[in-house]
Specification:
Blueprint: E1 25-28, E2 31-34, H1 36-47, E3 64-69, H2 73-84, E4 88-92, H3 105-116, E5 120-124, E6 134-136, E7 140-141, E8 144-145, H4 152-160, H5 166-189, H6 193-210, H7 215-226, E9 238-243, H8 249-255, E10 262-266, E11 271-276, H9 277-286, E12 291-293, E13 300-305, H10 309-347, E14 360-362, H11 366-372, E15 376-378, H12 389-411, H13 418-435, H14 458-481
Parallel strand pairs: 3-4, 3-5, 5-6, 9-10
Antiparallel strand pairs: 1-2, 7-8, 10-11, 11-13, 12-13, 14-15
Helix pairs in contact: 2-4, 5-6, 7-8, 10-12, 10-14, 12-13, 12-14, 13-14
């Protein structure tokens, strides 16, 4: 990518400030892209005090040959990094789905000769396991599980003794976990939200360029998304059917944040799914021979292959329907438990005459205010259903967390051990801390509660355990009453 030529009245790279970052935008084929060198210089100037990441580590260079397909931004960076370090690199022209079997004959000949000389052969994201080679990867190819918490770029850097720059760390995060992983990295680095979005925009555009995405393919993706109609609220499932090409990043980048699960079928026969790990596991089981990856251990990732498209669409649709029914049941049970929690609290204020000692609060629920003509509510003399939404919130969120923790175990008849209950109770407390940041306030907070579950007093741990036990009983009662489920 060519450097931007700054106007005479613009400052030099090292003088770029927060308010000036927006001026570094340039327009190319309707896409806003940031000049790499200026953006990275800006980030180093701003964040280098906290991030020491541009110094190379010293590590003895071994005798080895690398085989790398140049099919995306990460692969391109690996190739340039290896060449910069004086490594021997053989570049295969294969695109995604590259394999050892499909290497060019010239490369195969070189590899066989190198093996005879005892030279180590490293392959980056090449399917297959020929004898005498070392695979560097983090994806899953059918039964060949190469899962690794580190991206291929990070693994290569470790082998050659190189510390990744800011830009390279984001390239690695992008390949390992897409936009969520880049957002998480930015938070860890203390990078501002605006700068984070600038980096993501830069990385994603460069990745599409490296994948060989053309202007025509970008336009076709925009047209496919327009056919979906307006996407207001986030959807649990979106199907893009019959994309003229299989460059799915043109779809995922534009729809990011608007779906939980996305299926894209392409006219060349390729099928790609992006979404929940459990659906990916189902697809791997029903349609072996594809590929998958992403942050599957965190609940999301991707899957792809060339199976019968109609069968895949049917399988995903059926599974999504199953998930919807499950989520509706969870909501129903959570509402019931939230009501129980509120009633348990009300009983502590029950008076002899059958009324409850009043507890007046103010609400911001506009619909409730319009209905009752006031913003004041006596929460003790309201049932859960009568409460405004902001005063239902805490009990409802607590119930959702607890029900979600126990649901799968109870529904499948799995025994929940004491240690498992402790794990669940710890997550209940973590979620409570996330909803109640006031506990950390040095003046108004509560230092007893502002600590990890393991450090809580026993009486506070018991409260979290009780929520888990209540949720467990709630799901168990439902099963007894509905044995056909």
């Amino acid at each position: 990518m060519k450097d931007i030529e700054l106007n005479n009245n613009e400052k030099k790279d090292s003088d770029v400030k927060d308010s000036e970052l927006e001026r570094l935008l340039i327009i190319k084929e309707k896409n806003k892209i940031y000049n790499d060198k200026i953006l990275m210089e800006y980030l180093k100037n701003k964040y280098i005090k906290e991030i020491e990441n541009d110094k190379e580590l010293v590590k003895e260079k071994g005798i080895r040959i690398w085989v790398v397909p140049k099919n995306d931004l990460e692969a391109g960076r690996i190739i340039s990094l290896l060449r910069k370090r004086g490594e021997t690199v053989l570049v295969t022209e294969q695109k995604w789905g590259a394999s050892w079997d499909k290497l060019e004959e010239k490369i195969k000949t070189i590899i066989e000769g190198a093996k005879a000389e005892g030279i180590d052969i490293y392959g980056v994201e090449l399917q297959g396991n020929p004898e005498g080679v070392i695979n560097i990867d983090h994806h899953v190819y059918g039964d060949d599980d190469r899962s690794n918490p580190k991206s291929s770029l990070e693994q290569v850097a470790e082998i050659i003794g190189y510390r990744l720059s800011i830009d390279e760390q984001f390239i690695a995060a992008n390949d390992r976990g897409y936009i969520p992983a880049m957002e998480e990295l930015a938070r860890k680095m203390g990078i501002s939200e605006n700068d984070c979005q600038a980096i993501i925009q830069n990385i994603r555009f460069r990745d599409r360029l490296a994948q060989g995405v053309t202007a025509k393919e970008e336009t076709e993706a925009e047209e496919a998304i327009e056919r979906l109609g307006e996407i207001g609220e986030k959807r649990d499932y979106i199907l893009v059917d019959g994309l003229p090409h299989s460059k799915t990043s043109t779809i995922t980048d534009r729809l990011y944040g608007k779906y939980d699960n996305l299926l894209v079928t392409s006219q060349d026969g390729e099928v790609n799914f992006f979404g929940k790990t459990e659906i990916i596991n189902m697809l791997n089981e029903k349609f072996p021979g594809g590929w998958s990856g992403g942050e599957l251990d965190k609940g999301n990732g991707f899957w792809g292959g060339y199976p019968d498209q109609e069968q895949v669409k049917k399988a995903v649709q059926e599974y999504v329907e199953k998930m919807r029914k499950r989520e509706n049941l969870k909501r129903k049970l959570s509402l019931s438990m939230a009501s129980d929690l509120h009633e348990a609290w009300r009983k502590t204020r029950l008076r002899k005459d059958g009324t409850f000692e009043p507890r007046m609060k103010k609400t911001k629920d506009q619909a409730w205010i319009e209905k009752h003509g006031t913003n004041e509510v006596d929460i003790a003399n309201c049932t859960f259903e009568e409460l405004p939404s902001d005063w239902q919130y805490e009990n409802l969120e607590a119930a959702k967390v607890a029900v979600n923790e126990v649901f799968d175990d109870v529904m499948t008849g799995k025994e929940i051990s004491h240690d498992r209950i402790e794990e669940m109770s710890s997550r209940v407390h973590d979620a409570w801390l996330g909803r109640n940041s006031w506990v950390y306030d040095p003046e108004y907070g509560n230092p007893v509660l502002a600590k990890p579950y393991e450090e809580l007093p026993e009486e506070e741990k018991a409260k979290d355990r009780e929520q888990i036990n209540q949720a467990k009983a709630k799901v168990e009662n439902y099963l007894r009453e509905n044995p056909e489920v």
